[in-house]
Amino acid sequence: MSGTIFTRNRSVSIFITVLTLLAIAVTALSEGYGTGALSVSFTKVLGMTLCLCLAALAMDLVWGYCGILSLGHFAFFGLGGYMIGMWLMTARTEQVVRANLSEAVIPPTEGEITAATASQIFSVVGATDWPWMWAASDSLILSLVLVVAVPGLLALVFGWLAFRSRVTGVYLSILTQAMTLALSLYLFQNDTGLRGNNGLSGLQNIPGLETVGQDRISIWFFWGSALALGLAYIGAAWMVSGKFGNIIRGIRDDEQRVRFLGYRVEIYKLFVFTFTGCLCGIAGALYYPQAGIINPDEIAPIASIYLAVWVAIGGRGRLYGAVIGAAAVSLLSTYFTGGRAPNLDLGLFTIDWVDWWPVLLGLGFVLVTLFAPKGLGGLVDLIIRKDRA
Amino acid sequence: MSTLLEVQGISVSFDGFRAINNLSFAIGAREMRAVIGPNGAGKTTFMDIVTGKTRPDAGTVRWGELGVSLLSMSEAEIAQAGIGRKFQRPTVFEDQSVWDNLRLSLKKPRGPIAALFDRVSDADRARIAEIAAEIGLSDALDRMAGILSHGQKQWLEIGMLLVQDPRLLLVDEPAAGMTSDERAHTTALLKRLAEHHAVVVVEHDMDFVRRLGCRVTVLHEGSVLAEGSLDHVMADQRVIDVYLGR
After folding, report:
1. What angle do CA A169, A173, A176 make, to 5 degrees?
2. Which domains does chain B have, with CATH numbers?
3. Partner-chain residue, chosen from A239, A244, A262, that has the shortest CB–CB distance to B76
4. Nearest chain B Cα distance for residue A248, angstroms
5. How many Cβ atoms are within 10 Å of B84's Cβ, its own excluded?
6. Treating both helix axes as pointing N-terminal to C-terminal, what angle do B98-105 and B122-134 enclose, rounded to 10 degrees?
7. Can you give the pTM of this predicted structure?
8. How many CB contacts within 8 angstroms connect chain A with chain B?
9. Is the pLDDT of residue A388 over 60?
10. Residues B14-59: pLDDT tens digits?
């Protein structure tokens, strides 16, 4: 039980090595810094995949280790995206407005520029004024704070209410689904201030970096996503390696026993729930500038369920399982639903993968449950154990 | 002898069923007591009330020299105050090693931040080794708790209570499902514990209770029917009627 996290948990060194090699390979093959074998859009897909892996890592902490089957963690992911999206959109639109007004005979005042920016952003929902929730959108620093603070606060309040009342198991899962559904319906309203179903768009244009092409920005975001995932992995491995990990696994397996040992189970659950909510917020803030657009559909209940499916397919309670599951399933999903997979012609019937992907995913889920109950990560365990023997 | 736990006139009903009816009970600081009684006599509910799992409708539960009320405290606070509870079914963390099970039970700050930065000190190591020897699991520290035998799990759970340094141990049917060797071992262990702790043992098995050689409280329909040495209570006609004569 001594030494650093790198020697205590072998998977950390392996994971960081693989991630670094991946980053080097992607950079060397990128359009911005390398041979150009990887298109900009595919680089973005890879970067976004790393963000999804980060969210899955958080899901593994809260579900795989602490036993809380949250079906609402994608709400925190989406909120992180919205928080950074407001800044991106404001700063970008303001630049466009300034450029347009600079040719005017009378130089515009700051007030006029702000008003013009607002009407540009909100005309799509028939409004012209800044909603209150955009108050921090002119400050990058504040927006970055909100990326962590807003999902964290929602998780804290929701978790406090739920855990204090000792809501557990399937009831808690249903409540978290209700939370993400309510949030998504709320954001769908045109008058809530986040542009309703239009969402926030043009997020790939980073203010201040107009002269840098997307070929380079995509690589920067890939690096940022890889760095965030790497740090989170080290942090999560550290958290679960010591006594804290023993306690939350104890809560997962027998909450009552932990309580009668003198631990306040609610506080621990709240801690893990809120921490992972913040992690998801960070993941979302890195994801949506690469996706370019965010709308309320992103936090529909199904998204959070997919998150749980990734972790289940990858294997719970081993961190790398969640990452493997998220990477494998989301990349396959991109492949099959992106229209690239050739349709399967069976003569009488043609399998169109865009429609049939959910069936394939469901089949995969059943097969993994039946033949690899410990998930894809469990298969990795087998290989590692063979190495040692 | 100073009183460690004093329960006065508690009652509790579930949906009209009176599980505990005006029950009073007291135990001293270094005393062993066996609580016996037929099924449904209220033994487990009694433990639930003392450990904070169930709130009584009436009555008081006072603890320690200062006589603080346990009724307003949460399960975790009661455990921290020094009451350890062993469940009927052995409840250990099967997915973790014996060492980890004992480590997370050590008497140390219980908050999440303290747990995150917890380091195993030499004193912790010594304490775990001492308790492991006491419960006879010194050679099994690296083993997963899940692969222990039934008896070993029971002892591990008692060990998890001991490393918390409790003043009172509530032990629910420790001998259930044990072989006779394991029973003898458990009897010796409980007797040793009673030298330094208050121990309340809930048990069905009369032979086991006889071997403990302690005062006995007989519960029936939620209240105390008789109290005294085992021979004394077994000679009581009411006890014979409701329990032994069945």
Report:
1. 140
2. 3-244 (3.40.50.300)
3. A262
4. 10
5. 27
6. 120
7. 0.93
8. 69
9. no
10. 888 888 999 999 999 889 999 988 888 888 899 999 999 999 999 9
